[in-house]
Amino acid sequence: MDSHTMPEPRVGVIIDTSALPGGLDATAVCHLLAADEGVAAVAAVCDVSLDAVRGFVESNHLDGLVVAGLDVEIVRRPLGELLRKSGRSPFSLRLVDIEWLCAHTQGREEATGKAFLLLLAAVARVRRQRPIGQANLRPRFGPSRGRVTRREMFSLATLRYDVVPAVDAELCAAWRGCALCVRACPFAAVDMAADSARIDKTRCRDCGLCLCACPTGAIRHPLYLAEALDAELSVLLRGRPAPYSRLVAFACRSAMLALRKADRGSSPWRDGILPMEVPCLGALGWFLPLRTFDLGGEAVALLGCSATCQYGFDPAAVEAPLAATRRLLDAWAVGSE
Fold first, then answer.
1. Which of 126, 85, 156, 114 is nearest to 269 (CA)?
2. What residues does 160 pair with on adjacent strands?
3. Dihedral of CA 270/274/279/284: which sign?
4. What is the pLDDT of residues 171-188, one digit of tens each?
């Protein structure tokens, strides 16, 4: 069945009410989500357990899941494993740290509305994901990055999979002499094979720089499909009523992690700032910033990890697409400042 005719997955939302900020109305968030036709099921639970999640997924015949209110770094792996064991894709999971993202939003109504938008946007992104083929899967044993905890030592022999980009040979322009992806990769993970580029899974670090470099869209990452990111962004901005501001902050994964670890009591996500995570700012390109303004966004912020980037990305590299974006905005009389 063609990907364009496949039915969109059923995605549900679980809200852990024990971890929500006091100024947020969890009941109202649930009612708003339940009224949206894109949300298959909603549940508000105090102290979410794996058994509760399993029962929720199976009883509602869900294909994907959005979980709010939990510490994302602690629950990501066990929840992904739960989905895998129940026959779902472990990658059809989105975790939204509502406490961190909405704790400093002014006013109960504003906090509730922002939480609803963030969760609905996460649902929209999961619904636009498509099945992940073998070309995008890299097998590994144990944790992918970082230090290994004592508990994880017992699971090092467990086979897991990372999702990496892959090349659609029919769309690749290598036969015309294009090698932009080869030059963009900081880990020499892209080379040429016959008339198409090829990604070496053993070298790939999943930075996403090749996605932005490819001029034909031949390189695709199942977790960062343009249509899925556009769906998330569209919900964030089109559902944002006046007079609330519409500022979108694109942040790389490392920046999000660093901000979360720095101090949960001083969250940067105040009032109208709407966050969107990308693998690296180098993978952002010009489409999403321009699309932000097309959807009525008022401003765009870029949050990167600068000199500490694990991919060795030079922030100066975004100047060219940003300059082109500014010129277009000026030409459209939107204003680039």
1. 114
2. 140
3. negative
4. 999 999 999 999 989 899
Q: What does 142-209 look like in DSSP terms, one character per residue?
A: S-SSSPPPHHHHTTTTSEEEEE--EE-TTT--GGGT--HHHHH-TTS-EEEETTEEEE-TTT-----H
Residue with tokens 């519409």: 246
CA separation for the pair 163, 204 (Å, rounded): 10
For residue 58, the one-letter residue type is E
Range with the poorest average pLDDT among 12-26, 224-238, 279-293, 316-330? 316-330
Given a contact cutoff of 8 angstroms between Cβ atoms, the answer to whether 120 and 42 are in contact is: no
The answer to whether 215 and 177 have CB atoms below 8 angstroms apart is no
Q: Looking at residue 201, what is its pLDDT?
A: 93
- If you average pLDDT over residues 243-263, what whole number do you get? 77
CB neighbours of residue 286 within 10 Å: 16
Start-to-end CA distance of the chain, whole Å, equals 46
**What one-letter code names the amino acid at 6?**
M
Q: Indicate the burial class of 327 (C-beta count within 10 angstroms; 0-12, 13-18, 19 or more).
A: exposed
86 - beta bridge partners? none
For residues 70 and 80, give the distance between their C-alpha atoms in angstroms, rounded to a whole number: 14
| Helices 226-238 and 108-128, packing angle to 10 deg | 160
Nearest CA to 215 out of 175, 164, 165, 179 is that of 179
| Selection from 106, 103, 120 nearest residue 30 by Cα | 120
Q: How many CB atoms lie under 10 A from the CB of residue 38? A: 15
Instruction: Look at residue 147 and tell me whether its pLDDT is greater than 70.
Output: no
CA 116 vs. chain centroid, Å, equals: 17
d(CA 6, CA 129): 11
